[in-house]
Amino acid sequence: MTDDDARLRLLVVDDEPFTLKALQRLLKHHHVDVASSGREALELFERHGNYDVIVCDVMMPELTGVDVYRHVAQRRPGAEKRIVFVTGGAFGDEIVRFIESVPNELVSKPFDRDNLRAVVERVGRAQD
Length: 128
Known about the structure:
alpha/beta; Rossmann fold; five-stranded parallel sheet; 6 helices
């Protein structure tokens, strides 16, 4: 296996520019596409499709991480299992219920670098 074979294809989604850059740097040993909004993430998902992992902020204006999850699940059933949610906390009851209802990983901000990388690797290498 070559180094390139070991790299995962990631889509990283966060509306905060500093966080988006930090995530991109932390995960730079993989192929990383970035999106600064839920809408941009869905455009990239439609265009490029088969990401090994989607690292997605839960709370974003316009389209939330929940909206991204639902779109991915509808367009490519099973691919929603590869979403890792990131959050700074503080969201409403509906979002809390959703997060508790899905088995997806949730990583809290500020990130523990090693934990984030381990979660991405575990999700990306898991067989459906």
